Amino acid sequence: MRHTGALDYPGGMPDIFGVISDATRRDILQLLLERHLHDGESSVSEIVAKLELSQPTVSKHLKVLRDAELVSVREEGQHRFYSLEPEPLEMVEDFVIPFLSAGFDTEVTVEYLSETGEVLPDPDEEVLSGELASAAENLGRAVSRAEHRVKELVARFRLRA
After folding, report:
1. Per the count of CB atoms within 10 A, which of 65, 148, 158, 160 is most buried?
2. Is the pTM of this model over 0.70?
3. pLDDT tens, 9-61?
4. Which range marks the domain in which residue 52 is found?
């Protein structure tokens, strides 16, 4: 059986890789990231000037980024202002992080504390009410995301060392 390279990735991921594989689009994303960090947006003419590219070239790449939902656009008269939408890049992050953190053993230890700081017994045997179960699930997700970010930072530090 011949492998075609089309693994079962989360929806849309191969498209995101194709979009960010282009150096010009990565340059545009980098510019928009800088503006995003300062709660700003960039006009097409600003991007053209900073990257020293033609307006049609920049517009073509912005359309690809817009179609991939990596940027959003706000129209004001004849002008268009673009902003970064980083959420779709989480698919790339989710794909890459396991490779960067391979070999790291992480273990999360949970201690339950009372309001006074006293260690409480593990409530594994207790059944939580619907509202508490939902809160616990949300907390678990937050801890998982935090662990994911720590692994990412460790992996980046490891790559630089």
Report:
1. 65
2. no
3. 555 555 888 999 999 999 999 999 999 888 889 999 999 999 999 999 999 99
4. 13-86
